[in-house]
Amino acid sequence: MGVGVSIFFLTLGAILRFAIEPDVFGEAVHMDIVGLIFMIVGGAGIVLSVVLAPRRGRTSDDRLMHRENRPPEI
User: CA dist 69 to 8, 58, 62, Å?
Assistant: First the structure.
């Protein structure tokens, strides 16, 4: 899940949590709890994207550095 999708879940969760009445669908579904779950998922997705992003970038940079620093073939 990328940062964009995480921000979408965080925004959707905030809308469900703060802008919609909790009992809009009756007693069976509490929209404030559903919104809280979406906000937690969005926040966790942002944290994981930021933590894992340097690992992805570093592998491609390492490969590029090895190609550039290779001695010329004779």
Answer: 41, 16, 11
